[in-house]
Amino acid sequence: MNDIKLALLGSEGAGKSAVLVRFLTKRFIGEYASNANSLYHKRLSIDGRQLNLEVFDPCSQSGESRCILEEPVDWADGFVVVYTISDRTSFLNAKNILAQIKESRRETCKGEVPICLVGNKQDLCHSRQVSEEEGRSLAQENKCLFQEVSAAENYLEISNLFTKLIRHVMEQLKLRGDRRRYSGSKSMAKLINNVFGKRRKSV
């Protein structure tokens, strides 16, 4: 079974946890604020391959929280960076997070870093502050996948974006020959214990 590790990053209020839970369970959980870091586990099959997916959902990141990003960026095979289309500040923070990922992984990652930039809360188009063109342009600048979604209304789009990202991760791991990955003794569970304090969840 192949192990895939993703990190979910974004501002408070962007709905990143709602996007993740929608993907994992098909349910919409609504907004909630959490000051805890969570690790989710799910087994799934993509293109006939059995995968063990781990997704780390840390506390929401502010633009200055470089230290919070360091461990997830080192650990993850791929990233989902979430902003809300109704909050320009969250979009600017997503731009900063993308820059931090690129800077951190420039020396350690040969090839592209698999990232999906997600504009959430598409259902709030009446209060839109970030155009779809802006999101798509930022994604192109950073060689990311891009999708606008509504965690409240649409499971299929969210499922598709995670599937595309996981496929990209598998391609990059194959190209890199799996050189960068941690050994089993350096699992994310241990990392969260040592660095963050943990809250494990299986779905």
From TrEMBL:
Q: InterPro entries in the record, alphabetically?
A: P-loop_NTPase (IPR027417), Ras-related_GTPase (IPR051065), Small_GTP-bd (IPR005225), Small_GTPase (IPR001806)
Q: Which reaction does it catalyse?
A: GTP + H2O = GDP + phosphate + H(+)
Xref: SMART domains = RAB, RAS, RHO
**Domain of life according to the entry:** Eukaryota
CDD domains per the record? Answer: RERG_RasL11_like
* UniProt keyword annotations, A-Z: GTP-binding, Hydrolase, Nucleotide-binding
Query: Is GTP-binding included in the keywords of this UniProt record?
Result: yes
State a single Gene Ontology molecular function: GTP binding
Annotated EC: 3.6.5.2
Which class of enzymes does this protein belong to? Answer: hydrolase
Entry keyword annotation includes Coiled coil: no
Instruction: State the similarity comment.
Output: Belongs to the small GTPase superfamily. Ras family.
Name of this chain's protein? small monomeric GTPase
